[in-house]
Amino acid sequence: xxxxFGLTYLIGIPLLFEERIxxxxxxxxxxxxxxxLVLALVVRDVTVLSVLLALGVVLVVAAVAxxxxxxxxxxxxxxxxxxxxxxxxxxxxxxxxxxxVIVCAVWTVHxxxxxxxxxxxxxxxxxxxxxxxxxxxxxxxGSFAYGHNFPPEYPIDPGHRLGxxxxxxxxxxxxxxxxxxxxxxxxxxxxxxxxxxxxVLYLAAQRFAGGRAAAxxxxxxxxxxxxxxxxxxxxxxxxxxxxxxxxxxxxYTLNRDLNFQWxxxxxxxxxxxxxxxxxxxxxxxxxxxxxxxxxGDYGWGPFLFAGVVAGFMPVYHVHxxxxxxxxxxxxxxFTLRIQWLGFFxxxxxxxxxxxxxxxxxxxxxxxxxGASLRGYCLELxxxxxxxxxxDGAIWFGRDFVWFWIKNTSAxxxxxxxxxxxxxxxxxxxxxxxxxxxxxxxxPNVIVLQPWDWDNTKFFIFWALLGSIVVGGVLARMFxxxxxxxIVATALLVxxxxxxxxxxxxASDYSVSAVQFTDARGLEVAGWVRGHTSPDxxxxxxxxHNSPIxxxxxxxxxxxxxxxxxxxxxPDYVQKGxxxxxILRGDPSASDxxxxxxxxxxxxxxxxxxxxxxxxxxxxxxxxVYDNGEYAVYRVSS
Length: 637
Known about the structure:
five-stranded mixed β-sheet; mainly alpha
């Protein structure tokens, strides 16, 4: 955060002191991780020296940048002191910013402190999407911290470049040589950027919408986003009484049986898909910089700063990179000026080669008999088709509208209202938002990911910036007469209630906790980390929570197929079959071990149901570890 604070003085635009702190948290983490990766690539490891050297260099650059703007720094400190020490009733007092940050921090700290819990029975994840998605992040971070994974490749499918935006996990790996456990490293990096994000969103919304009320509302409209699923709480209370309120029995933003698909963004993205912690914040920060630069007279500096940061964004978050570059293309058309080249040239010259390096080997979209466009499936109305397929195509229009109303409540009507009442926005941001409707319309026609639900990776940026617009509309409604305030209150409750219920449920450990691995799984993972080569390749069951790839940083022949399919890695079917052949000790096992350079086979509770044969490996391997539940055999020559 200190490094990022200083780096903001390279932007070339006056900012609020609060913006330098909040924006600096994301920018500092971005810079330290980026330089750390360069050093780790040189030595093929993450070490105390590489981590501290990266931090030290960035701190020096930041200190020099701040020192060159000491007068501006003093002025911003004086301004902040004046605003914070003024009466809370005075215009411009930052108390709403403080309130938003504190409220979000209380939930974030409570939720993350139970993200991973070690018990005598093993390791537990505090929420199902931590149990699920964070297993991949453990594998990626562990491969850097323990497995010398440089240049980066998928540890769950060796031989393929690591096309997932991995920098959030590399940042976590940097904490391990400093003394952190791998699980704590994930929690702390999610905590740092998770605590910063509400502040970033508030400050960006304050710039775009032009008011404190709009900014505060925007934060909660996005973070508590949900549809009309809160309706089912009434039935739950009728069925279980007030006990249903103490321990909520279901998620109210996601119910695939009833086609509620808009899982709350915190639980769908900020928690499980950790790279969005970089992606959302960097998107907002760069858009604020470019929006101010395009409407002011700050020269080339802000454009160049934003362009360089954007250029490296694909390894932090691919969809954020695409959003920033594509949206600002339209913004450049709004304000034709030569300085835009200062943004687009570095953004494309740096970003496109990185993007090509990360590009998936194949498009694994499965369209069946449905229409497709260059291999991408056409799905008119996105998942609303599940409704109109039952009701008949004649009802497409009705079901499409109802699908989005029940999934996002009053969000879309308020967005449309903002365009009609654009004079309510003194900043004119509604006009600058218009291109973002493409992030809504296109994914409603084309499935841009192998799994159609993943189109939300595009919808979410429409929702992120749209929340600022909706916040502006509701803020103006609250400023009008009593009737308007009542309507605005009702609309705000409709927008956030389902999401608030789901966040409350997710933070209830007694309801949400799931065992990740048992005590013996932790034991075998500890032994493997201490007694096998960092480059070792294991054959284990292709389960997402196998203790070998997730807790040791070692490579596995093939990992969880659901991830590999969405990553566009087409060999997961063949290698999955060959993985089972090795575990079973089929006649081809010996040849397959040589083909893939397998070093160890582990047989435990997840391998036994696949037909794994200890008898075969007792004869053809060397038993090097056995804790009664997990057995490890050395098999390489």
